[in-house]
Design a protein that fits this description.
The chain is α/β, with parallel strands linked by helices and 327 residues long. Helix content is 35%, strand content 25%. The chain starts with a strand and ends with a strand.
Amino acid sequence: MAVGFHSLGSYVPPKVVSNDDIAEWTGVSTEWIDTRTGVQQRRYADEGTTTSDLAVLAAKQVINQAPAESGDLEMIIVATSTPDQPQPSTAAIVQGKLGLPGIAAFDVNAVCSGFVYSLTVANAMLSNRDDGRTALVVGAEMYSRIMNRTDPKTVSLFGDGAGAALLGPVPDGYGIRSCRISADGQYRDYVEVPAGGTRQPIDAAAREAGRHLFHMQGRPVRDYALATFPKVIKEVLADGGLDAADVGRFIFHQANTRLVEECGRQMGLDPDRVPLTAPEVGNTAAASIPLALHWEHQRRPFRRGEHLVLAAVGGGMTAGAALVTWY
């Protein structure tokens, strides 16, 4: 049988960080933020909250809403670029908090493409099973912890949140039809947190230079995204034997409102087919696709047989797309 979505969930912290807050931190105007990004607000987790806490809240929704016929859980994959700690994996911590011992648990870090990467891995692993087992795939991020609050080009964009999905068997003709993932490591410095690994420790010099915080080269990232989104989407549609006109909705990584809108325009897509969550929660990195998927399903439920494309571009530089027929 094919592999598809059994249930969805998401969580964003209640604390709202407005454009007025960003303007106060950075010295730019709220008009500058709106014109450049289209993000109106983002959410920040309270002090003491961890990425795994957000992941668990989204995961519990998925588990509680799973259909009665869903099989036993086979694995937990957490897509994150802001883990609780360098080791162990955030997925292992999530597994412990959910009280699910013995289940395989591991992280995937492809930055904003992480959920599509994780979806691809889970699909490949479940497709080799014939016992009806399922996979919990979570995207969870806390970018509030790594923001330079004086840099308007980044702090205006990012927020915290989590989205989750339970994947399992669906009838043939439905579910995940094709996946594509890629990376271009020569552009790895476009998006990075330079310090904190074996390359450079977080010492006094690193802190003084702000190298323990998030850095992004805005223009190169935008150019890469606008070139790569159509390419990876065209590939995944060709693999699935469909055209863009056959797709009901495109769930794009919510890099920022203006970039998602521009991608849709360049591809000739009706804006109603390209849902937006960036105005309300900003860029939640690996959480943005599952969060947008869940919110859109709540707003206007996906129809059985409706074709969806999930597509992301992230640090690395990475990219991924999945073609799904909803069941």
